Amino acid sequence: MATLASLLSQAVMDIAPTAYTTPALVSAMTGGDVPQGKVLTEWIEAATEEIDRRSGMCFRAKQFTNVLDGDGTGAIFLDCFPILEIDSLVLDGTLIQSGEYALKKSTGIIRLKNLVTPFGVANVIVSGIHGYSKVPTLVQKIATLIVAKTALSSRFEPLVDNENIGDFSQTRSFKKLNDELDRAWAALGKRFRIFTL
């Protein structure tokens, strides 16, 4: 079983990090106003980082190592969740076997069985893989909306909403995009890390 877990870890690390959206989705969201080739990877990466920061969650499957302080309790709260797998748990330099703890993957909480974390600074080290095996649809929608708004701003001058040339008038407003983005952010919510004393 340990060999299978390490092979899974290696397989997840060998693939490129999962993008939250694609240039094709962004181009479709803009109605073709911004072609796929004009969507920059930097915009997608910036949207990805903003989503992770604002939501307090990690949606890409990535290797992690948390170095935490022992607080004398039987619970360890990991920085990012959900958790796909735990590779190792070390308390004060001692490797803890997987049968000595239970992991709640959806919340990133490890409950120790018949153990407590020893008091100390940076004496609890947890390594593993966090994130989702596939980026959730809502996260993909938020990323696509953020990048589409950036791409449209780049193409159509972000501060000009109205253009009038003779009898021709055109309004470029991001109200629909902003409203949709606000609804999506509200649906996603924010999760906060739990701190213990």
What does this structure look like?
This protein is of the alpha+beta class and 197 residues long. It is 35% helix and 25% strand. The protein contains five helices and nine strands; from the N terminus they run αααβββββββαββα. The strands form three sheets. Strands 1-7-3-4 form a four-stranded antiparallel beta sheet, with helices on one face. Strands 2-6-5 form a three-stranded antiparallel beta sheet, with no helix packed on it.
Lay out the secondary structure:
Blueprint: H1 2-14, H2 23-29, H3 41-55, E1 62-70, E2 75-77, E3 83-91, E4 94-95, E5 101-104, E6 109-112, E7 120-130, H4 137-155, E8 162-165, E9 168-171, H5 175-188
Antiparallel strand pairs: 1-7, 2-6, 3-4, 3-7, 5-6, 8-9
Strand order of the largest sheet: 1-7-3-4
Instruction: Give me the strand/helix succession.
Output: HHHEEEEEEEHEEH
Largest sheet: 4 strands, antiparallel
The residue-averaged pLDDT reads 82
Q: What is the end-to-end distance?
A: 36 Å
Number of helical elements: 5
Number of strands: 9
- Would you identify the regions where 5 or more consecutive residues have pLDDT less than 50? 1-16
Approximate shape: elongated
Which structural class do you get from the secondary structure elements?
alpha+beta
Give the helix proportion (percent range).
25-40%
What is the radius of gyration? 22 Å
The proportion of residues in beta strands is 25-35%
Task: Supply database-style keywords.
197 residues, alpha+beta, four-stranded antiparallel β-sheet, disordered N terminus
